[in-house]
Design a protein that fits this description.
The protein is α/β, with parallel strands linked by helices and 150 residues long. It has a five-stranded parallel beta sheet with strand order 1-5-4-2-3.
Length: 150
């Protein structure tokens, strides 16, 4: 079994255990490896413009707000923007701050006909620590994966 198949199988197992309506759940490191191994795979970052600018960006990510900034209102054009920027046949991984908004985005994409959607657990910043700060427990940045300051 190849590394890509192994990652996808683990993600699918997690997704079934959590009863997700999309293909699975990836750790940040698995998502990064998958993006390197699967030609045409896309990372869709669903955080807000403020988060991209002030917290950091993942190089090469497709950026589509799930909730709009300011105000936090759900982006009514999310699926339309996704269809405009990402082929429905592509393998797509969704990323947000902590792995929650990206569940909604992956679900919406699956409902819109994207059949190869995955959520990235822990998100970009991970969970809050005992002091209420993110970036120290889990997440894309904590895993040392590529990112740039916004």
């Amino acid at each position: 079994m190849g590394k890509l198949t192994e990652i996808l199988n683990l993600a699918a197992e997690r997704g079934r255990a959590l009863e997700r309506p999309y293909q699975g759940e990836l750790t940040p490191a698995e998502a990064h490896t998958l993006l390197q191994l699967a030609p045409g795979a896309k990372l869709v970052d669903v955080r807000t413009r403020a988060e991209w600018d002030w917290v950091g960006r993942v190089p090469g990510a497709v950026e589509i707000e799930w909730n709009q900034y300011p105000g936090g209102v759900r982006n009514p054009n999310f699926v339309a923007e996704l269809k405009r920027q990402v082929d429905p046949q592509a393998l797509v991984v969704f990323l947000c701050r902590s792995g929650v908004r990206s569940i909604g985005a992956a679900t919406a994409a699956a409902e819109a006909g994207y059949n190869n959607c995955y959520n990235i657990l822990e998100g970009f910043e991970g969970d809050k620590d005992a002091n209420g700060h993110r970036g120290h427990i889990g997440g894309w940045r904590k895993a040392g994966l590529p990112w740039i300051q916004g």
